Every structure is written in structure tokens, then in C-alpha cells.
Amino acid sequence: MKSKRCSQNNCQCFIIPSYILENLAKNNIEEARISLSKSRQVRVRRKIKEFDITGIVDLTNEVYRPYSESARHVYDCKGGTKLRAMEVRKEGDRSSTQDSAVNHAYDYAGIVRDYYLNVFLRNSIDNNGLDLVLNVHYGHNFMNAFWDGDEMVFGDGDGEIFINFTNALDVIGHELTHGVTQFTNGLEYAGQSGALNEHISDVFGIAIKQNYLKQTAQDADWLIGADIMGPSLKGQALRSMKAPGTAFDNKLMGKDLQPDHMKNYYQGEDDNNGVHINSGIPNKVFYLVSMEIGTDQAALIWYHAIQSLYATANFNQFVDMVETAAQKLADSGVVPATAAKTVKTAFNTVGLPY
Ligand SMILES: [Zn+2]
């Protein structure tokens, strides 16, 4: 199996941000306390991995390796924290296993990989046929899922607040897109560049889900993580791209802090200066643009834009990149002629540029 060490040393790409786990821990949810401390250990481990980002990939580049070389490998951690503990399903195994976590991880990762190939001619996460390594049943009732710079890790959740983290295509799309970002522009995981990193993962997580379900922007719920919420929090989600700040409001998790406008920009230090919080602002823009021109077309503009981003990009620079990409694609007739104006109007609606 190809193995690469190409980690971004500062990426902390967990689907559940610490401030939510902290709220749960304060409410005496033991699993949250344990998940929080495990997550911190993983972060420390990740920070010592080698920093090696391959750089910007040109969308017009040819696919370097045959698509078939990107293989899925699903490993069962069996409640432990050792990764790649026991391989239980690999690319091409015909029959599914009895374990729905294994099958979901395998199937959804395949959908994500196929979307990037079919829509953007991107050959796996690194555009170079990287194998997709998926570890399931990590830890005991572990309340999180993350991309660790090389591979995916999924907890089972506690079954009450969160169910198995393999259960949601948008979560797997989100996490694997952290890998795409790592290999494409290496957006630093703090402040505005970190919020853009989170935003891009939400964008492609939701675009992949809508594409797979053949939903229009109008039909879709625009929720991230609705399918991992357990029976106690049914009907809530981690984020709403349509209405940032409304995804959850309950005694256990607290209230969704995402703003939908620059005037409510989060200035605090939590969450790496608000990476999962301020991402609500560009998320709203993507929603507004998708409602006008369709999610697939909006995703195409965003994908082009992220090719030119650099690691420390801020919101204003992102606005420039997206507007430029929209104009370029409109000029070549790929997206509607009005797309650039639509994008500009949507950014202005949330107070961008600022
Ligand atoms: Zn994330």
C-alpha cells in the first residue's frame, strides 16, 4: 500500500470542536470528557509529524496515476486507539461485512473519491492516487471523527448524543476534504485561514451529499452532521449552512455560536480563534450562491478558487479568489454569465469584503 507522510503540522481537523465537547463534559457526559482528552493526545501526536505539503495543484493537470490505484482500506480499532489495527475490508472486496460502520466508511469514502474524480478530475485526496485509510470503532464510545493528516478515524459515539460517526456522508466528505485542502493550499488551521479550511470542508461535504442524493439546493436541508446526532438530540445538527447559528441549542451541547455576518464575527481565542465558528460566514455565502446557480456550479467555482489560495489567506483574499474564479468560469461559458455578480452580491450580504 502506498503510504505517505504529508501532514500539515497544525491541522486539527476534528468534526466536533472542543468547545462542544467541553460543554458536554460540563454536563457530566463522561464519554465527552474522555473524547476530549483523547482528541488532545491526538493533536499533540499530530504536531510532531513531518510538515510536507506538496503545493498547489493545477486543475488542468492530468491525472497522474490510474484511478484504480487509490484503494480503500478499512481497519477496525476494536475500541482501542491503535490505528490500522486490523484490516477488515479493502478495495474490491465484493461482499459487505456484517458491520455497518465498516460498510458506511467504505461506501461513503468511495462516494467522496468518485465525486472528486468525476466532477473535478481529481485523483483521490492528493490528486495522485492516495489510498484512503479508514479506521472505525476508535476508542470507547469516542465522540469524534478526524482526518489526522494521513488517514481517517471514526469513533462510535455514545449512542445517545452522537451515534457512529461513519453514519454521515457529509461528515466523511468534510473530513476527507481536510485532506484535499492539506494537499492543495495547506490553509493554516487558525483564525480566518482556519475558518476557510473548515468552510471548504463543509462546502464539499454538503456538495457531495447533495450530488449523491440528487438534491437541488432548494430541496436540501443544508445541515452538517444531522445523521450523527443520537436519539437525545434528534433533529439537531453540528452546523447549518443555510442559517448559521441555528443548528443546535440544547442543554448538553450549548448553543450554536456560528455568525452569519461579519458584524457578529467571533473575536475570541476558543476553537483556534473560531475556526468552526466564523466558518458560518462564508458557509452562508456558499448557500446563497447555490440557491441562485445550483450547488454543483457553485462547487465548481469554489474548487477553482481554492487552487489559487495560499496557506495564510484571509476572508478578503478568499473573496477575491472566488470572484476571479467565477468570472473566469463565466467567461468560458462553464457557469452562468451572471455567476460573478451572484457571488459578489452573496459576499456583500454577509459583510464581505470587510
Ligand atoms: Zn473540520
Describe it for me?
The chain has 354 residues and is an alpha+beta fold. The protein folds into two domains: 171 residues, Roll (Elastase, domain 1); 159 residues, Neutral Protease, domain 2 (Orthogonal Bundle), CATH 1.10.390.10. Helix content is 42%, strand content 9%. A six-stranded mixed beta sheet has the order 1-5-6-4-2-3, covered by helices on one side. Strands 7-8 form a two-stranded antiparallel ribbon. Strand 5 and strand 6 form a beta hairpin. Helix 3 crosses helix 4. The radius of gyration is 19 Å and the shape is globular. It starts with 12 loop residues before the first strand and ends in a 5-residue tail after the last helix. The N terminus is likely disordered. The site of zinc ion has 6 residues, from helix 4 and helix 5.
Map the helices and strands.
Blueprint: E1 13-14, H1 18-26, H2 30-47, E2 72-76, E3 87-90, H3 100-120, E4 132-138, E5 145-147, E6 152-155, H4 169-184, H5 191-213, E7 223-224, E8 239-240, E9 249-250, E10 254-255, H6 270-274, H7 280-293, H8 295-307, H9 315-331, H10 339-349
Parallel strand pairs: 2-4, 4-6
Antiparallel strand pairs: 1-5, 2-3, 5-6, 7-8, 9-10
Helix pairs in contact: 1-2, 3-4, 4-5, 5-7, 5-8, 7-8, 7-10, 8-9, 9-10
The protein binds zinc ion (ZN).
